[in-house]
């Protein structure tokens, strides 16, 4: 059966996926089970924020294949644990072949953990209005969910930024976060299910329960 979009590939299992999710088994597994599914915990959002930062300038496959190494190196992305990392930890991480050894990104991850802790005691504006003290990084990021999601048919129709991702990036930078540009934040929003950019006709379109 022909796929509903020329940018979808029908696999041997009869399911339609975009080309990028068909290149390797690990990418297909990630696409089928995780990408675009809602993540609402502080730790989960911090992990994905961190990995998106490390991915900048690299392929997602490169990061995905080092994911367990990142988890070991960064204490499972426990915000409080990472925030306590010091200079010795930075040197340890720079010597860890299981991750991307980029000093700026390593230091930004530690700095972002500290900013996430500070966020819990701050009040301020998110996209949905005032965020009370005690709000987490997840609360802030999800407050930028748009009123509607894209409905791309072709891969070229998938946005790389949005007004919401630009506003989220600006707010995160105001709160001390780093490596959080509008493009990186849009990729984060896609990964977390805040927007659904699965191509129309993909077997994953609408599967998150966040969007119809």
Gist of the model:
With 212 residues, the protein is mostly helical.
List the helices and strands and how they pair.
Layout: E1 8-10, E2 16-18, H1 25-33, H2 42-55, H3 60-64, H4 67-73, H5 79-83, H6 87-94, H7 103-119, E3 124-126, E4 129-131, H8 137-142, H9 163-174, H10 182-192
Antiparallel strand pairs: 1-2, 3-4
Features:
about 5% strand, mainly alpha, single chain, Endonuclease III, domain 1, two-stranded antiparallel sheet, 4 strands, Adenine_glyco, globular, DNA-3mA_glycosylase, 3-methyladenine DNA glycosylase, about 210 residues
> For the largest beta sheet, what order do the strands appear in spatially?
1-2
Examine the coordinates and then state which fold CATH places here, giving the name of the CATH topology: Endonuclease III, domain 1
* Helix and strand pattern: EEHHHHHHHEEHHH
Major sheet attributes = 2 strands, antiparallel
Q: Evaluate the radius of gyration.
A: 18 Å
Overall mean confidence score, pLDDT: 94
Structurally, the number of domains stands at: 1
Q: How many individual helices?
A: 10
Alpha-beta classification: mainly alpha
Strand content: 5-15%
CATH H level, superfamily name: Hypothetical protein, domain 2
């Amino acid at each position: 059966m022909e796929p509903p979009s020329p940018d979808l590939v029908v696999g041997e299992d009869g399911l339609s996926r975009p080309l990028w999710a068909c290149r390797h088994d690990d990418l297909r597994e990630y696409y089928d089970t995780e990408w675009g599914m809602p993540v609402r915990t502080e730790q989960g959002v911090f992990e994905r924020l961190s990995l998106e930062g490390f991915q900048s300038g690299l392929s997602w496959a490169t990061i995905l294949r080092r994911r367990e190494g990142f988890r070991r190196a960064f204490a499972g992305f426990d915000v409080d644990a990472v925030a306590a990392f010091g200079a010795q930890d930075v040197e340890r991480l720079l010597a860890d072949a299981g991750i991307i050894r980029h000093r700026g990104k390593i230091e930004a991850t530690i700095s972002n953990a500290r900013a996430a802790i500070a966020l819990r005691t701050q009040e301020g504006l998110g996209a949905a209005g005032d965020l009370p003290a005690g709000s987490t990084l997840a609360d802030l990021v999800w407050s930028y969910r748009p009123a509607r999601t894209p409905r791309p048919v072709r891969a070229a129709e998938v946005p790389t930024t949005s007004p919401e991702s630009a506003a989220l990036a600006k707010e995160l930078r105001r709160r001390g976060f780093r490596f959080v540009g509008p493009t990186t934040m849009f990729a984060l929003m896609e990964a977390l299910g805040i927007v659904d950019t699965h191509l129309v006709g993909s077997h994953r379109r609408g599967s998150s329960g966040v969007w119809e």
